[in-house]
Specification:
The chain has seven helices and seven strands; from the N terminus they run E-H-E-H-H-E-H-E-E-E-H-H-E-H. By secondary structure, the protein is an alpha/beta fold. The protein has a five-stranded parallel sheet with strand order 2-1-3-6-7, with helices on both faces. The chain has a two-stranded antiparallel ribbon with strand order 4-5. 32% of the residues are buried. The model has no long low-confidence stretch (mean pLDDT 94).
C-alpha cells in the first residue's frame, strides 16, 4: 500500500486536521505495516497558483522558458505522486467556507486531462478511480445540520466533486465540526472524529 499524506492547515501544532490526519495514517500503518507513506505539507511547500507559466499541462504546449519548464516539472511530480498512491489522506480545514488555497493549488495541478480524467463525446471520465481518499475535515461552526449551513459549505462538497471528477468515488469524511463553539463542543467534536477514524 502506498499512502499519500497531505496536510494544508496553516495553524501548525494547533491544527485539528493535522492531528486527525496523523491518527488516520497511524491507523492505516497499524493495519498495513508494510505501507509506504509520502508526506506533503502544503502549508510549507505548496505549488504556485495556476498562471500563464504553469498552464503547459493543460494546453499541451511545450515549455518555452526555464520558468515554464520548472512549473511543468512541479505539475508532473505532483500528478505522478497522486497516481502512485493507493490511499490519499487529506487534511482539509474550513477557511472562509471552503478549503485552503494551498490545497486548491494542489488540486489544480493534479486535475490533468489525459492523466486523471479524459474528455469524451459523452462527457468527462475519471481515470484515477482505483484509489481511496480519506478527508480529515475541521470546521469552527456547525454546517452539516441545517440547510443554511449546508448552503455555505464548499469544503467537503467541493472535494467530493473534484475527486469524483477524477474518478475517485471512495471518499470518506472524518469530520470535527463546531470546534470554535467552546471547549465542550470542541471536545465532543474531537471525540466524534476519533470514533469515525476507528469506524473507517
Amino acid at each position: 500500500m502506498q499512502i499519500l499524506h497531505i496536510d494544508s492547515s496553516i495553524t501548525g501544532t494547533n491544527s485539528i486536521t493535522r492531528e486527525l490526519t496523523a491518527d488516520i495514517v497511524a491507523s492505516l500503518k497499524q493495519a498495513n505495516p508494510e505501507a509506504q507513506v509520502d508526506y506533503l505539507d502544503l502549508a510549507v511547500n505548496a505549488p504556485s497558483h495556476l498562471s500563464a507559466q504553469s498552464m503547459g499541462f493543460r494546453t499541451g504546449q511545450a515549455a518555452a522558458t526555464e520558468i515554464e519548464r520548472q512549473e511543468n516539472a512541479v505539475s508532473e511530480a505532483l500528478v505522478s505522486q497522486f497516481l502512485a498512491a493507493d490511499v490519499i489522506v487529506v487534511g482539509a480545514p474550513f477557511y472562509n467556507f471552503t478549503i485552503p488555497t494551498q490545497l486548491k493549488a494542489w488540486l489544480d495541478r493534479i486535475a490533468q486531462a489525459g492523466r486523471t480524467f479524459k474528455y469524451t463525446a459523452t462527457g468527462p471520465i475519471g481515470l484515477a478511480g482505483d484509489k481511496k481518499v480519506i478527508v480529515a475535515s475541521a470546521r469552527g461552526g456547525a454546517y452539516s445540520s441545517s440547510e443554511a449551513g449546508q448552503a455555505m459549505e464548499h469544503q467537503e462538497s467541493y472535494l467530493k466533486v473534484m475527486f469524483g471528477f477524477m474518478g475517485v468515488t471512495d471518499v470518506t469524511i472524518v469530520r470535527a465540526e463546531g470546534v470554535a463553539m467552546g471547549p465542550e463542543a470542541k471536545a465532543a467534536a474531537m471525540q466524534a472524529a476519533k470514533a469515525q477514524i476507528v469506524a473507517a
